[in-house]
Structures are given as structure tokens and as C-alpha cells.
């Protein structure tokens, strides 16, 4: 039995552009000197971002305060076609999991905003469930284990370079979402590239990948 393992931001919910604006605001106040910083950190946990790029503890606290305030005001719009795709998985008995670098508090807010959304997933892994963030494969390997499916039989759905690498390193099949990064930069990092879930079926993706 195959399984589907989903990243969250930029895959299931349309939030990456919002996070880009938030991090652009943060680095305008606390510069890191890194070009395209908001894109460089995608797929990383907040703990890793703070430790690597904002080592000063006082600045860390201020960054977290800004991020929390913006997240509290954030919408969590689900991408078109996602519910239909997840419903098809559920109807076919194909297990699914979320593997996100976000924290448990954000996930609670997401599930409160979309009642019933949690029911589509047999497992939800957040930054609290891993010791090593993407591109390390730990999250995806743990998710496959929790679903009782070998990682090699899973399709990982990702939009970030770090996430795609994590899926590959886990030994899973990898589908890239061209929602955050240009399609041409994803083609050598995934088994298949899709623009979104509208009109897409899991069976067709598996067939395409295994050809």
C-alpha cells in the first residue's frame, strides 16, 4: 500500500508568499547580509533559522515576537484541488501524513480554522517531532514509519529545495509543487513536477513516476 507525505506551506496551504513578506520585514530590521534570505530558509525549522542566522538571544526574542504577531493575523488558505485530492486518497484507503517545519501551535490554529482537515491525515509531524530539520530525511522517515509504509512506497509532496532533498534522501518518490520556485529549477530534484492538485490523481502520479 503506497502513502502520501505532504509538506504544509506552499503545498497544502497557500502561505509561502506571506512568509516571504514576513521574513523580508524581519531582515529589513535585523539584516543577515544574505541575498534572497526568505527563499534560502524555506523548509528549515524556526530553531535552526534562529541559531544559524540570529545568534544574538535578544534579537532572537524580537524576531520570534514579530513572527508570532504576523502568524496570529495570518490566514491559512487551502490550495484549490487539495481537498478533492485528499478525499480521493481517503476513499481509496491510501494513508497520508503532514511533515512540516512549523510548530504545534500553528498546526492547532490551522486545524481550528479548517474543521475536519486533520481527519485526512494518519500522522502529523511538526518541528517538535524531529531533532534534525529538512534537508535531513528524519521527518519523512518517521512519517512513513508511523503510517506503517516503507518510505520507498511513499510519494513526498514538496515545494522547497530542502524538502525535496529530504524526500529523496528518505528514499521516497518525490513530487515537486511549482508554487514557490520556478518549474525549471525543480525538474532535476523531483520525479515529477506539478503546478498544483487540481485535476491530479495519486494513481496517475504513481504511474508517471514508475514509467
SS content category? alpha/beta
Q: Terminal Cα separation, in Å? A: 18 Å
Q: What is the molecular shape?
A: globular
Strand order of the largest sheet: 3-2-1-4-5-6
Order of helices and strands, N to C? EHHHHHEHEHEHEEH
Give the mean pLDDT. Answer: 93
Profile the largest sheet.
Answer: 6 strands, parallel
Which regions contain 5 or more consecutive residues with pLDDT less than 50? none
Helical residue percent? 40-55%
Radius of gyration: 17 Å
Structure description:
The protein is of the alpha/beta class. It is 43% helix and 11% strand. It is built from nine helices and six strands. It has a six-stranded parallel sheet with strand order 3-2-1-4-5-6, with helices on both faces. The two termini are 18 Å apart. The mean pLDDT is 93.
What are the defining features of this structure?
alpha/beta; 43% helix; single chain; globular; 211 residues
Amino acid at each position: 500500500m503506497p502513502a502520501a507525505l505532504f509538506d504544509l506551506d506552499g503545498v497544502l496551504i497557500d502561505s509561502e508568499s506571506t512568509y516571504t513578506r514576513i521574513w523580508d520585514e524581519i531582515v529589513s530590521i535585523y539584516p543577515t547580509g544574505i541575498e534572497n534570505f526568505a527563499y534560502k530558509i524555506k523548509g528549515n525549522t524556526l530553531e535552526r533559522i534562529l541559531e544559524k542566522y540570529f545568534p544574538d538571544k535578544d534579537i532572537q526574542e524580537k524576531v520570534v515576537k514579530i513572527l508570532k504577531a504576523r502568524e496570529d493575523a495570518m490566514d491559512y488558505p487551502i490550495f484549490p484541488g487539495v481537498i478533492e485530492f485528499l478525499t480521493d486518497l481517503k476513499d481509496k484507503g491510501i494513508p497520508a501524513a503532514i511533515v512540516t517545519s512549523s510548530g504545534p501551535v500553528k498546526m492547532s490554529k490551522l486545524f481550528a480554522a479548517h474543521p475536519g482537515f486533520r481527519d485526512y491525515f494518519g500522522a502529523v509531524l511538526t518541528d517538535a517531532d524531529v531533532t534534525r530539520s529538512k534537508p535531513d530525511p528524519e521527518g519523512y522517515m518517521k512519517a512513513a514509519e508511523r503510517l506503517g509504509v516503507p518510505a520507498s512506497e511513499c510519494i513526498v509532496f514538496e515545494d522547497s529545495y530542502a524538502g525535496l532533498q529530504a524526500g529523496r534522501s528518505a528514499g521516497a518518490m518525490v513530487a515537486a509543487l511549482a508554487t514557490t520556485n520556478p518549474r525549471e529549477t525543480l525538474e532535476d530534484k523531483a520525479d515529477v513536477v506539478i503546478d498544483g492538485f487540481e485535476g491530479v490523481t495519486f494513481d496517475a502520479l504513481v504511474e508517471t513516476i514508475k514509467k
